[in-house]
Input
Amino acid sequence: MKTSTTLSRPQLPTADDLQITDITITPIAFSDPPLLNAVGVHEPLVHRVVIEVHTANGLLGLGECAGGSSRLANLAVGAAAIKGVSVFDTSRMEILIHEALAAELSVFERAAVFGAFEVAALDIQGHATGRSVSELLGGTVRDDVPFSAYLFYKWAEHPALDGRPAITDEWGAAMDPEGIVRQARKMIAEYGFKSIKLKGGVFPPAQEIEAIQALRTEFPDLPLRLDPNTAWTVETSRWVAEQTDGLLEYLEDPTPGLEGMGQVAERAAMPLATNMCVVAFDHIKRSVELNAVQVILGDHHYWGGLRHTRELGTLCQTFGIGLSMHSNSHLGISLAAMVHVAAATPALTYACDTHYPWNGHNDVIMPGVLNFVDGSVRVPGGPGLGVELDRAKLAELHQQYLDADMSARDDTGYMQRFVPEFTADLPRW
Ligand code: GKR
Ligand code: MG
Output
């Protein structure tokens, strides 16, 4: 005989409870060493933004993205557009943000603004359901997300300027192959990375090839990558590809544009990778037609958030393109989001990039969650992103932003303060 039992359902928040009531956008500035790249040198402070989304039932979600005065204005427009929407309605959030932003804005900027809020919405979805962001994205296919050692040519210090004394750091100079190998040894000893990326485009290519050869000698088993951010012509890129045959797991953005990359790819033995010529979904068709790139570096900050980044993985699989992950100077909210999406993306085929060794000591999140062990970060258990804001640090970094009176990142202008004849005209060689 059947007996009836009354099961009491757990009290779940309603769509009204999960409506966005308030969004706080806090610009911050944190310190950065003098890292060199093809367009100049990193300034002493990085401008970034922390997003806090609040719901009617008092939940809080976090996001982080690049700063700049136009980005701040676009974030304010996006925030106003999604007030009152449930954090589970991310597709609706995307439509509203796209409608509200000025029509002439690039696809890239629109995706970046939405992406910052989508991460915060997913963080809240996790808090509302007791699940981690990676579970919400389909579950983890890896418990530990591998990252690569991201090496930069760098000055020993930010030189004294406008009455400000020189700013030294723990890394010292890396201006030649020996300096690069020294930097790699230090970074690998501290973080345990199992692959290496060198930011190139700083010195003539022959010198950067020497650095790659020195890294190969020092670390015979670690995959190596070189990324000159389009500093070379097609001809130079082909020559570098020939010289580094057998040394690189991929060559990243040697030359500008899909057509140029396609011409290099015709001759290069190694895969070509990009975070510069395929940066939005509508670049993929032409890239596939030209076989211009064999690896895409995804980045949830500009591919429109975590779900779209996972979708990028599906497209990469469809077209037989490898997937890696791009990074820019960032803190722990971004790192947590990067780890969750990497954990939930089966198509990810390479260790991800991260600037965290350069910037992580400035973090705005409570310590203890995001640790590098053998070059990998364990996926935070959640709920949500699994990270908590350090409010004292947020206030300090916001004050630093106010004191610095920053508008946008300017590696070129900063370089010209020391080397007036420097230009960012690329390709340079
Ligand atoms: O931090 O100087 C840098 C990098 O060059 C960065 O701006 C790039 O976007 O890391 C990036 C890349 O892979 O091209
Ligand atoms: Mg790159």
Remarks:
- The domain at 20-134 is CATH 3.30.390.10 (Enolase-like; domain 1).
- The two ends are 85 Å apart (CA to CA).
- The CA atoms of residues 112 and 302 lie 4 Å apart.
- The chain has two domains: 20-134, 136-385.
